[in-house]
Amino acid sequence: MRRRSLFAPLMLVLAGTVLLAANLLPEWSLGATFAEHWPWLLVAWGGIHLLEQALSPAFGWRPPRPLGGGAVVLALLLALAGTAARGARSADFSFARDWDPDWFHEETHSFPVELEVPAGPQGFRLDGLRGEVEIRGDESVSTIAVRGEMLLSGTTRGAVERRSTEALPVLAETEGWTYLTAGDGVGASPGREYRLTVVVPASTTVEASNTAGEFTVTGIDGGLDLEGRGSLRAEEIGGAVSVDLEHGKRVEVHDAAALTLKGSVEHLDLREIRGDVQLDGNLYRDAFIDDLAGELTLLSRSTRLEAKRAPGSIKIQGKRMIVRAVEGMQLEAKGSRRIEILEPIGSTSAFLERGRLIVQPGEKSGAMEIRGLRADVEARIREDASFSIETEAKRGQVRTFLDESEDRAPGAVNGPTLQLESEGGDIEIRPAAASEASERL
Length: 441
Hints:
The structure is a single chain. The protein has helices at 7-24, 30-37, 39-59, 69-90, 94-97, 157-167, 434-437; strands spanning 107-118, 123-127, 130-138, 143-154, 170-174, 177-181, 192-201, 206-220, 224-273, 277-282, 286-292, 296-298, 305-308, 312-316, 320-324, 329-342, 346-360, 365-381, 388-393, 398-400, 417-422, 427-431. It is flat, with a radius of gyration of 35 Å. The chain is of the alpha/beta class and 441 residues long. Strand 5 and strand 6 (177-181) form a beta hairpin. It contains seven helices and 22 strands.
């Protein structure tokens, strides 16, 4: 009978025991033990091999193979490693203690920033800024004032100070625009960040490009155009907001004329948008829309989105969408999606190409036309709701879980019309559960 050597399993047990001892006994030095006792590994290896040779005839085992070239190389490497460890313990490295550890260690130093120039009639532009920038509109000022600090990293204070003059931001008026640019044009590079507060006239239009970090813009009557990386929080914007972020973290826009969002962002929060909203990007993990007065167009691959009070036309290409309390909604979705329309207000029209389209009427819901092409259609009817339900499934089935004696059953004429159609899917009508009515993302 042929069997393998016991050396490898025993070495694994030994290695695990040694590592466990190193964790449980912090005062014990694994390196020192190896440097002093490494020859015992060669002794154990040879002893196990001799023991296997001696026991093979007694147990009827085939004798183990003799040590080959690989074993010799491994033994030589172990000997070299042990000898090096032993030599390192006795070597004198006192010269290393005299070195200055700061020759490779970078520290961050702060430099004040105070700039002010007259505001250009065209607006305010930023270019190449990295860090935290807050822009506030003020009706009582006619200049653009920048206050804050620049954080610059370097090995020594002297080296950082020599760079600081060129690294400080520059504020100047050119061709009607007031420009705030990072020193020497590389402000968005690692090792340099800004913590700035910018006060501008309230009527200013703001444009920012090549940015990285967290931007906050409040109280401006003009528009806002931001391009770069990071996050944006915008409030009380009189004009339209345009955002183009690469791997953005969060976008919050409250009280703006309109919004166009491109690129990608993880979290989205929109409230009180007076015009149209177009979302064209990727990676919308969590999105919330409340009080939208215009049209909502979703061209993104949004995965978790909730909309409230968003009248107008809604188009979606995301995987999942939940719309709640939307007035006069018209929705058209292509591709395979899961869409839930909860308690719409007034008349509602919705079409889904593939997937599942779920509707739950509310007290203020009017006539509803819910259609699916190759999609399943599901209606969740509350106990206190009365509707005239009409169904048509051309190649699917209609399943009803309502009490046929109730006036909510399909065919009963009572209340607004709920028309459910599907050409290639099934239609399901059932009571609405309390947990479904209160679902939140």
